[in-house]
Amino acid sequence: MRSMQIIKWGEPLELRESETPTPQGSEVLVRVDACGVCHSDLHIWKGFFDLGNDQKFQIEERGVHLPFTMGHEPAGTVIAAGSEAQGIETGKSYAIYPWINCGSCEPCQNGLTQICDAPKIIGTRVNGAYSDHVIVPHPKFLVDHSGISADLACTLACSGLTTFSAIRKIQPDRLTERDTVVVLGAGGLGLTSVRILKYMSKARIVVSELDAEKRAIAVQMGADLIVDPSRDSAAKDLKTAAQTDDGRGIAAILDFVGLPQTMEFGLSLLRKGGHHVHVGLFGGAYSMSLPPLAFRMLRVSGSYVGTLEEFRELVGLVQNGMDLSIPITNRPLDEAADALEDLQSGKVAGRLVLKP
Ligand SMILES: [Zn+2]
Ligand SMILES: [Zn+2]
Q: 20 to 30 A from 77, CA-CA: which of 30, 92, 193, 253?
């Protein structure tokens, strides 16, 4: 099989050929139809996450060694299965849930399978789908995406799921047209969140984004208001807008950027009892004044990808008409290195999807 691999951290990916694996036991061999390029791939590619205060988390500490194949947003066609793999159809295309977990550790037992203590995540821990084939350890991680294109279905596995799970945490169905949700960042996740919020909630949706072009797309996606956070009056304008027409202020922040600046901006906007959901992985460190957290009863929580159940629910919602058709740019698998460069330089609006 052909895979675009990291040979040296941060250096352009290189094409490598290897023998296509034979699925054993419960394993399933999938021919990749599409694989999304995720922003977090940039961190994996570089080999570290910036934790702030000059601290870095090295990917190698997770036990990931080179050469390595990224790609944790795959959809593909089942071409072979081990003797214990039941309930799937050979020749059928499935979306793949990449957040493979053990099912028995403490977090898994508590329903937080996405932060399993012994994860075997496709494309971040084990070789992924920047390749023409990928092994999935069990058929339960394959989700029927009939009615949705592979290009769209694959992006649901990470960006879509991450967005959906974060939105579920703010209980969108309980928000009314008098409540405002502010989305920080109009990259792939932020734009997806606008669509999901539109479908699941009556709340007013505001998108805060530095880039004018991305702000314009957010409007097309259905944002009720957009704001340029670099403007001095941004916070004041936002709070005013959230109070007009009987508005009850800003109930929730969905931070898809994850910088100290966005944390500060988000917390400054929230109404009493508001909820800041931290999702983005840009990195950095942030210090804050603590008493307001109690006085204002603010809530700050982290959200990381989502569970298999949430993934099935999300795919089901899209199959039933929730429109998540964000702009998708296809690139041949062989151009994966260029695709990463483009993503890094901020040139990509919407999502990049590799095609083997
Ligand atoms: Zn991802
Ligand atoms: Zn586990």
A: 193
| Type and span of the H or E element at 16 | strand 14-17
91-105 pLDDT, tens digit each: 999 999 999 999 999
The HSE-up count of residue 197 (CA atoms within 13 Å, CB side) is 32
The ligand whose atoms approach the alpha carbon of 107 most closely is: 2
DSSP state of 41: H
DSSP string, 165-189: HHHHTT-GGG--TT-EEEEE--SHH
All structural domains of the chain: 2-161+305-355 (3.90.180.10), 170-302 (3.40.50.720)
CA–CA gap between residue 149 and residue 158 (Å, rounded):
16
Mean of the per-residue pLDDT values of the chain: 94
Pairing of strands 28-37, 74-81: antiparallel
**Among 242, 93, 275, which residue's Cα sits nearest to residue 167?**
275
Q: Which token pair is 74?
A: 């795959």
In angstroms, what is the span from residue 205 Cα to ligand 2's centroid?
A: 35
Per DSSP bridges, beta strands 328-332 and 351-355 are parallel
Q: For residue 307, which ligand has an atom nearest its CA?
A: 2
pLDDT in tens, 55-76: 888 989 888 999 999 999 999 9
